[in-house]
Amino acid sequence: MSKFFKTIIAFAFLSVVPFSASAEVTFVSWGGAYTESQIKAYGDTYSDPDSIIFEPYNGGLGEVRAQVESGNVAWDIVDVLPSEAIIGCDEGLFEDLSDVAWTDAPDGTSMEDDLAASGVTIMPPCCAPQIFWTYVAFYDPDNFPGNWSGAKPEGIADFFDVENFPGKRGVHTWANAIVEMALVADGVGVNDVYDVLETPEGVDRAFAKLDTIKDHIVHWSAGSKPLELVKSGEVVMSLAYNGRVGAANLSEGENFEYIWEGQVIEQEYICLMNGAPNRDAAIDFMIHASSSESQAEQAKYITYGPMRASGIDIIAAGEPWFHTGINVLDQMPNTPDKLAISVIGDPTWWADNGSEISERYGAWMGN
Amino acid sequence: MEAHISTAEQVLLTTDGIPLKDSLKKTERRNKIKAFLLVFPLLLFIIVTFVVPIFDMLGRSIDDSQINQVYPKTFEEYGKWDKKADELPPEEVFKAIYFELGTGDKIMIGRALTRMNYSKSGWKSLIKKTQRQIKKDLKAETVITSYKDRLIEINEKWADRTYWYAMSQMINERTPIYYWNALDRTYDAEMNVVRQSEERRIYVKTWIKTFKVSVYVTFFCLLLGFPVAHLLANLPLRYSNLLMIFVLLPFWTSLLVRTTAWIVMLQQNGVINGVLVWLGILCDDCRIQMVYNETGTLIAMTQILLPFMILPLYSVMKVIPPSHLRAAANLGAKPFTAFIRVYLPQTVPGMSAGGLLVFVLAIGYFITPELVGGKDGQLIGHWIAYHLKTTLNWGLCAALGAILLGIMLILYWLYNRIVGIDNIKLG
C-alpha cells in the first residue's frame, strides 16, 4: 500500500479517533458485567484508579490491525481471545513483553509455574493471563420436561442423547468448543481431543456426532440468549458462557445446573498494543492486573476462574468469597476436580485451523 | 443586457460589444465554478472517507506481495522445481527456506504466516516450530549436509507434498485466489481452478441465500407498502399526517429494540403463539416456529425496511392528480383497468426508488438476520465481518465486498437498461 494512501487513511482516522493527551491508560474490553468485574477487581484496587479508562469494543483484531497499520494507535491494553492473542503477537500487532517481571504468587510460585499448574503451557509473549471462561452445557432442573426418561443429564454425552433426553438444544453459531464436545461425547478422552482433531478422520467423526442432534438445535449468537432460551422453555439444554450462568445463579436467584463434564475451558489474555501511547503506565497496570490477588478478586463479582492456580487457593481460603456473601467455588469452572473432566481449549490449534473448521461448520449449519 | 444585431454577420452582441454566446459561456462557467467550490469540501470529504478506502480494500483483494518479501529466494528456487519429475522440491529450495526462516524478520514472517494458513491450515504451527529449531541450530553453528533431511527431521510435515503444492498459490504478487475463494473455488496442485472440498462450500450458498432474502423482502415491502402509501396519499391532510407518524415512529426507534421486540412476539412462548393457542386455533404442542429461522428474518427485515418503501411511494403518489383516474373513468375504463393503465405506470418511479433502496439495504444487512435468523441468519455480511475481525483474512473480505459492489453495479446497469435511471424519483 503506497505511502500516499497510508497518509490519507491516517488523516481520515485522525479526524475520527479522539486524542488522549494525558497519561491515562485505555483498557479495552468486552463491556457489560464482565468489564464491571474488571473495573472493580483491577481498576479500583490499583494505586491510581482514575488513570485507567475502560472502553468497550466488539471483539476481533480488525480494529487493532487497522490502528497499528495506520500508525495511529489509540488503545493501550486490549482484552482478547487466546487465538487472537497468538495471531496478534505473531503479526507484530502486540508488543513482545518477554522481559517484563510479572508478580509471583503469595507462596513464591512464578507466573509460569502458576499457569502450568492450571494446565496452560503456552503463553503468548505479548500478553498477560487473565481468566478462564468456559463453554458449558446447562439446564433448569425446575423446568424438567415431563418426557425425560433418565435421571438428570450428567455428562456431555447426555447433551447429544436425544433419546433419553428429548427436546431442543441451544448451540452457538460458531465452531469453537462444539467440535471438541462432540468428540468427548463420542468417547474421546478430554486430553486426547486435539490429537484426534489433527487427523481428517477425527474432524469427520466430530461432525458425524453433530449430525445426530442437527434437527434439534436452536442456534444463538448473543451471550445472553442461552439463558433466555432455557428459561422460556424454547430449549431444554443449552451451551453457554459459564459466567452468564453463574451470574444468573448468584445474582438473579436462578437455579441452573451445570453439566461440567466435557466443558471446554478457554483462556483470556490482556495484551499490549504495539505503539501504545502510554506504554509504561500500561505495563505497570498489566503487572497489577495479572497478580494472583487481582485475579482472585475478580471472582468476587463474576464466576470466571483465575488462570493462576494460586488464585483458586486464595478463593478457597477466603470462602464465602462472592461479594454478596455466598460461596463461589461450586460455580468456578477450574477447581482441580472439574479440571480433570474438562477439555482445555487449544488456541494454537484454533489459530491454525480455525478458518477452515469455521467454514465447514457454517456449511454444515446451512444444510 | 440588450442585444444588438450587427449588420454583417448576424451575431448577437451584448451592450459591451462582446458576442452574446461568449458572454453567456463566461457567466455559466463562473456559476459552475461557484457551485463546484460550494460542493468541493463535501467532495473532498467523500473522496477521503469513502472512495480512497474502497479502492484500498479493492487493492487488498488481489494483493499478495507480503509473502514475496519474506521468501524471495525460496520462491525463486521453487520455480525451478519440476513437479512431474520429483516428489519433493529440490535441495536448494529447502536450503533457501532454512535460511530465510532462520534469519528473517520475525514480524514479517509472522504476518506471512497468517496468510499462508489460508492456503493450507497447519503452516503456522509448522513454521513456528521449525523456526525455533533452526534458530537453535544457527546458534550452535551445527554443520548441515542436507537441508532437506534436516528439515524433515525437525518435522515430518516438510515431507508432505500438499504443503509444498499449497506454496504455489502464494508465489505471485497479485493473485485472484481470494475471488476464487469467495466463489467456493481454490487452486489444486497444478494451479487449476477447482471447487473446494464439499464440506467447505459455503459462499455460493450464502450469496444465493442473501440474494433470495433481499428479493423476498423487497417484494413483501412493495406488497405491503403500496396500499399504505396509496392510503396516505389520498386521505385528507390531517388524517394522513397522523397516520404518517405511525409509519415514522418505528423508523425512529432503535434497530435492536425492534429486532428484540420481534423475538418476543414470534418465539415459541411468545405473544403470537400464545394468543393462537389461547384462542384454540393451535394445539399447545403444535406451536409454529417463527423465529430463529428464515421466516423470522423475512418478517423482521420487512418491517424494518418498510418505511424506505412507503416514503418514496407516498411522495410520488401525492403528485399524481386524482383527475387522471376520473378522466380514465370518463373515457370508459373500469376501475381496475384505470388503475393498471393510468395510475400504476405513474408510480413506477416511486416503486423503483423504494425497491432499489430496500434491496440495497437488505443485501448488506447482518445484525437483524444474526439475531432472529438462527442458523439461516448467516448472510454474506456475516462472513465479511467474520473475516475482517477473526481470521484477519482481509484479502477474502475485500474480495467478498468487491463482489457485492460488483453485483450492485450490474443490477444498477440492468435497471438502467430496462427502466431507465431517470425514472427514479424520490418525490
Helices and strands, with pairings:
The complex is a heterodimer of chains A (367) and B (427).
Chain A (H helix, E strand, L loop, with lengths): L2 H14 L8 E5 L2 H12 L8 E5 L5 H9 L6 E4 L1 H9 L20 H7 L9 E13 L16 H4 L9 E4 L5 H8 L7 H6 L1 H12 L5 E4 L4 H8 L4 E5 H10 L5 E16 L6 H11 L2 H7 L6 E2 L2 H9 L18 H4 L3 E2 L2 H20 L1
Parallel strand pairs in A: 1-2, 1-3, 5-6, 5-7, 8-10
Antiparallel strand pairs in A: 3-8, 4-7, 4-8, 4-9
Chain B lengths: L3 E2 L6 E2 L6 H41 L4 H6 L1 H7 L12 H13 L2 H14 L3 H18 L6 H8 L6 H7 L9 H6 L2 E3 L5 E3 L7 H32 L2 H16 L2 H12 L4 H9 L14 H24 L5 H8 L4 H30 L2 H6 L7 H10 L4 H25 L9
Antiparallel strand pairs in B: 1-2, 3-4
Helix pairs in contact in B: 1-19, 3-4, 4-6, 10-11, 10-14, 10-16, 11-14, 12-14, 14-16, 15-16, 18-19
Characteristics:
heterodimer; A: alpha/beta; D-Maltodextrin-Binding Protein, domain 2; 2 domains; 41% helix; 16% strand; B: 427 residues; mainly alpha; MetI-like fold; two-stranded antiparallel ribbon; flat
SSE succession of chain A: HEHEHEHHEHEHHHEHEHEHHEHHEH
Amount of helix of chain A? 40-55%
Distance between the termini of chain B: 37 Å
The largest β sheet of chain A comes out as: 10 strands, mixed
Q: What number of structural domains do the residues of chain B give?
A: 3
Strand elements of chain B, count: 4
Structural class estimated from helices and strands of chain B: mainly alpha
Order of helices and strands of chain B: EEHHHHHHHHHEEHHHHHHHHHH
CATH H-level superfamily title of the largest domain in chain B: MetI-like
Shape of chain A: globular
For the record, the CATH architecture of the largest domain in chain A stands as 3-Layer(aba) Sandwich
The rounded Rg of chain A comes to 21 Å
Describe the model.
The complex is a heterodimer of chains A (367) and B (427). Chain A has two domains: 3-133 and 267-339, Periplasmic binding protein-like II (D-Maltodextrin-Binding Protein, domain 2, 3-Layer(aba) Sandwich); 135-265 and 344-366, Periplasmic binding protein-like II (D-Maltodextrin-Binding Protein, domain 2), CATH 3.40.190. Helix content of chain A is 41%, strand content 16%. Chain A has helices at residues 3-16, 32-43, 62-70, 82-90, 111-117, 156-159, 178-185, 193-198, 200-211, 225-232, 242-251, 279-289, 292-298, 309-317, 336-339, 347-366, and strands at residues 25-29, 52-56, 77-80, 127-139, 169-172, 217-220, 237-241, 257-272, 305-306, 343-344. In chain A, strand 1 (25-29), helix 2 and strand 2 form a beta-alpha-beta unit. In chain A, helix 2 (32-43) packs antiparallel against helix 13 (292-298) and helix 4 crosses helix 16 (347-366). The mean pLDDT of chain A is 86. Chain B has 427 residues and is mainly α. Chain B has three domains: 4-60, no CATH class; 66-175, no CATH class; 203-423, MetI-like fold (Orthogonal Bundle), CATH 1.10.3720. Helix content of chain B is 68%, strand content 2%. Chain B has helices at residues 20-60, 65-70, 72-78, 91-103, 106-119, 123-140, 147-154, 161-167, 177-182, 203-234, 237-252, 255-266, 271-279, 294-317, 323-330, 335-364, 367-372, 380-389, 394-418; strands at 4-5, 12-13, 185-187, 193-195. The longest helix of chain B is centred in the first third of the chain and has 41 residues, at 20-60. At the A-B interface, helix 1, helix 4, strand 6 and helix 16 of A face helix 1, helix 5, helix 6, helix 10 and helix 18 of B.
